[in-house]
Specification:
Helices cover 33% and strands 12% of the residues. The chain is α+β, with helices and mostly antiparallel strands and 344 residues long. The strands form 4 sheets. The chain has a 5-stranded antiparallel sheet. Strands 1-2-3 form a 3-stranded antiparallel sheet, with no helix packed on it. The chain is globular and about 75 Å long.
Amino acid sequence: PFGSVMPGRKFASGSSYRYGFNGKENDNDVKGEGNQQDYGKRIYDPRLGKFLSVDPLTKTYPSLTPYQFASNSPIKCIDLDGLEGDPVREIELWLGGVWDDLTSAKRWKEVPKNLNETLNPIYIGANHAYKIATGKDFDGKPNDFRGTSGAVSDAGVDVMGFITGQRFFKILGAYGTNALESELNSTTRAIQSEATPKPPPNKPAIQQTTATETKQAAGTNIPKQSTPVQLAQAKAGSGGVPLPLKPSAPEQIQNGCEALAKKVQKAIGGDFLQITPKEGSFLGPANYSGGTVNNWRHHVAVVKDGIVYDRMTGSGGIPIDKYKELFTHSDALKFEQVKTITVK
């Protein structure tokens, strides 16, 4: 994919072919034939196999290297314009996910239930009403950390989904986020409207600590009556957790989870939380307050004192049991606490 052309050798394809590596047009007037391509935002030198300047979005994506190519995913992506990768293998990955489901006995057993939960408006409406009234769904799974207000918001989003027809793309959308789903995700965030989710009714915002936690917090400047998140941040030191205060948008967290996890773990300690599918190749959708992420084959976060930290949680983190609830197919996933990252 890179290197200088050997002297005396030339690929004869006719003078009309003007394109080189990654499908970009050669800029032959600067450094000779095939020695430079203009990606729009950066200049690429195929002899060196690298861009000649840093990524203009470096500050926005600290998990990626400054000279990153194709979002550090050159096998999955081509580089679109010198800024980000374009997942040209998305269809291949989608077909791979379909094949995994077709050959999974467990998935076949889940098909009737999944169709009912995805496409049956009567079942979906009744389930939403049950969640709002009781705080849990028909399977006994409690509402997420947004509580009743979140359940009401989700019901509103599903109503819009049926009106727009988006609900009927859900089976395909399980393997990739289509444009309509992306638009609806932004509408979801607008409906929720709250920057910081409130605790559900009858649950205090400040949770009583145990005697052990109070002892661990001794010597810090936080109050004795603190949340587990505050305790974890106190132990992390004055530097805090190297994450944005609020959860990041979905398009900002598709790549680089390993590098970010190492950065967070170095700052606050704790273990790595590796998430992999028990069967098949994909984790399935992860729904959090910032939207929905998809197409992950694995994910890595940091867990310390029962609190998980990544771009879906922001610097505050969330308890590990609540974190697992973010994943639609959490029962089909393996959550491992490890000292060293082993997935790639």
